[in-house]
Amino acid sequence: MKRDLLLVDDDPGIQFGFSRYFSKAGFEIRAVSSLAEAREALLSKPYDAIFLDMILPDGKGLDWIGEIRQQNPYTAIVVITGHGDIPLAVEAIHRGADNFLTKPVSLENLSVILRKSLEFGSLRRKHYTSQRLNKKIEPYFGDSPVIKKVMELASLAAENDSTVLILGETGSGKGVLARWIHESSSFGSSPFVEINCSGLKGDLFASELFGHAKGSFTSATQDKVGLVEVADGGTLFLDEIIDMPLNVQAEFLKVIEEKTYRRLGEVILRKSEFRLICSTNRDLQEKTREGVFRQDLYFRINVFPICLPPLRERMEDLPGLVSYLLKTMGGGSGEVPSEVLKLLVSYSWPGNIRELKNVLERALLLSRGGPLRLSHFTGLEGNAPLYPGSEPVYDLVKMEKLHIRSVLNRFNGDTRKAAEAMGISLATLYRKIKKLNYSQ
How far, in Å, CA of 69 to CA of 88, rounded? Predict the structure, then answer.
């Protein structure tokens, strides 16, 4: 992939020479003659490196360096200066430039300096990423009465090591709550191991959970440690446990009761002491009656249930959630205009907090670092209102279309699960989608 360079210099000879040299060297280079053009170029896309002349027709390059660093902290900046501008170049280094060269410029030397400056940029990226990963941000769940009751139960769960079952719709924050319980408990400094039970089937699931010995099945080319073993001394979080295969359910029940297990293809009995947290977005009792979930396993994991309500049932939490999510995504103060907040509150959020996060992330991208506006939230206006009477009444055909869209969003486009939730066959759902001209 070619690296993008921006040359900011009003000398036509330098523009021609640099463009020709670095194009042949495999870079994409754009040349501009003023700070105004440079700012416009940087708004259109990020650049890996910028060659910046100090004296330009509409100002000093020195005054732009801080702005570059704020918008693009990883971009390499190489200052190009005249013979008498050395003190200015040193000041540029203090403000965030990576290096400088004096005119006339040797393109060979500049090429070496460019590559070193790009390395500095990569190191900065790694440093900022490491800082962001290490910086612990306390999650915000809300302040509504219903969420306060949830957090009272979560706090009680954190004070002991009983098995917790978190119930709630897709995207409601079950995984975040599970991690909060873990980090707030005596297991907090130990591993938090998460497995999505919807992702794997059969032997692959059992292998992921228990591990396997080399040669235990066709693709088992080496020994593998299972997540039950990794979770020893910490917390094992089974997300959407309803999708755990029946044959694995029987084996896992024994693990819970005896804290022992065997890797696939192995006779050695291993031991793992872990705290168990499970979650599901479906009715486990109903699934036990249908025979797709073991009743004895249900009784074993339903020790301390916590029901996490959907976002539409606690809309008073939405402003705080918007502010929190924007801050975690680098959205400054987290504030949004009143008209935007009004739009967000009027929407029913079938995808819950996950959908809200996706909408805000898209809006931040569209805003390009500027203030958020209504135009950045397209796609919410035409959906069914949260409160009856707040919008014009829709006809039944449109309501059916909106309902199908909502259910499909809730199950992340999984038509089988959506059909099951609506009590219709998969074939019927496909016919309705085709009839309504609905595109996933």
Answer: 18
Task: Indicate the residue type of 26.
Answer: G
Q: Does domain 4-134 have CATH number 3.90.226.10?
A: no
Class of domain 145-307: alpha beta
**CATH architecture of the domain covering 316-384:** Orthogonal Bundle (1.10)
Question: Which residues lie closer than 8 Å to 299 by C-beta, 6 or more apart?
Answer: none
Secondary structure tally for the chain: helices H, strands E: 18, 16
Determine the Cα–Cα distance for residues 123 and 98; give it in Å rounded to an integer: 12
Residue 326 one-letter amino acid = L
Indicate the CATH number for domain 394-440: 1.10.10.60
How confident is the model over 205-232, as a mean pLDDT? 85
| pTM of the predicted structure, to 2 decimals | 0.59
Distance CA 431, CA 107 (A): 65
Give SS3 for 273. Answer: coil
Token output for 207: 């292998």
Q: Do domains 145-307 and 394-440 have the same CATH topology?
A: no
pLDDT tens digit string along 347-388? 889 999 999 999 998 888 888 777 888 888 877 755 544 444
What are the domain boundaries of the chain?
Answer: 4-134, 145-307, 316-384, 394-440
Q: What confidence tens digit (pLDDT) does each residue in 324-348 have?
A: 999 888 766 678 888 999 999 988 8
How many residues are recorded in the chain? 440
Whether the pLDDT of residue 154 is over 90: the answer is: yes
What's the whole-number average pLDDT of the chain?
A: 85
